[in-house]
């Protein structure tokens, strides 16, 4: 069985907590993160075997569909996602900086996974709706062409869901800028 990550994003905290509880009761999954985010939405991120994560997310979304903003299940998530979520990514040098911003929380994780699997890039940070009025962003680095390809692929993914807000690629960002964001 393969490892997976799943997430639900709900309009309210009450339903979000209730749905997260239902997810862990439905399947053998672990809660990675479950909390209220701006502006009063609730996210729950779980991990486990692919079939268990899918069953848990499907059960929560089906039961509370009218309050669900978004959800996803990723099989074999890229290993850079968790350090980027927790701000523990260690980066030596930045050749190019890619930024992608979304209107929601769930699509940024999917976008980061897609970007990391598109080209040789390092996901630096995933800001998931905290302090951003429900929006989210990712930062990634690599060679300019790799960052451009990764951002474009991630942009297509979130645009297909109607959650794309903005993106940019900076070739050789100034060290003062890098110091201010890392």
Reading the helices and strands in chain order gives EHEEHEHEHEEHEH
The level of helicity is: 25-40%
- Spatial separation of the terminal alpha carbons: 36 Å
Oligomer kind: single chain
Structural class: alpha+beta
Please give the largest β-sheet.
Answer: 4 strands, antiparallel
The number of E-state strands comes to 8
- Spans of at least 5 consecutive residues whose pLDDT stays below 50 are none
What is the percentage of strand-forming residues? 25-35%
Can you tell me about this structure?
This protein is of the alpha+beta class and 182 residues long. The protein has helices spanning 13-26, 50-63, 81-86, 106-118, 144-160, 175-181; strands spanning 3-10, 30-37, 41-49, 68-75, 96-102, 121-128, 136-142, 164-171. The chain has a four-stranded antiparallel sheet with strand order 2-3-1-4, with helices on both faces. A hairpin with a 3-residue loop joins strand 2 (30-37) and strand 3. It is globular. The relative contact order is 0.16.
């Amino acid at each position: 069985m393969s490892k997976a990550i799943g997430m639900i994003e709900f309009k309210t905290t009450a339903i979000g907590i209730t749905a997260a509880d239902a997810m862990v009761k439905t399947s053998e999954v672990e809660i990675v993160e479950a909390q209220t985010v701006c502006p009063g939405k609730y996210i729950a991120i779980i991990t486990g075997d692919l079939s268990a994560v899918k069953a848990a997310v499907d059960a929560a979304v089906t039961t509370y569909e009218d309050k669900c903003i978004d959800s996803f299940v990723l099989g074999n998530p890229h290993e850079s996602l968790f350090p980027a979520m927790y701000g523990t990514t260690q980066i030596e040098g930045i050749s190019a900086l890619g930024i992608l911003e979304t209107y929601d929380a769930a699509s940024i994780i999917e976008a980061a996974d897609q970007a990391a699997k598109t080209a040789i890039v390092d996901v630096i940070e995933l800001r998931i709706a905290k302090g951003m009025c429900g929006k989210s962003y990712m930062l990634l680095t690599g060679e300019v062409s790799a960052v451009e390809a990764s951002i474009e692929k991630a942009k297509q993914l979130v645009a297909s869901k109607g959650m794309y807000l903005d993106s940019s690629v900076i070739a050789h960002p100034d060290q003062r800028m890098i110091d201010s964001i890392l």
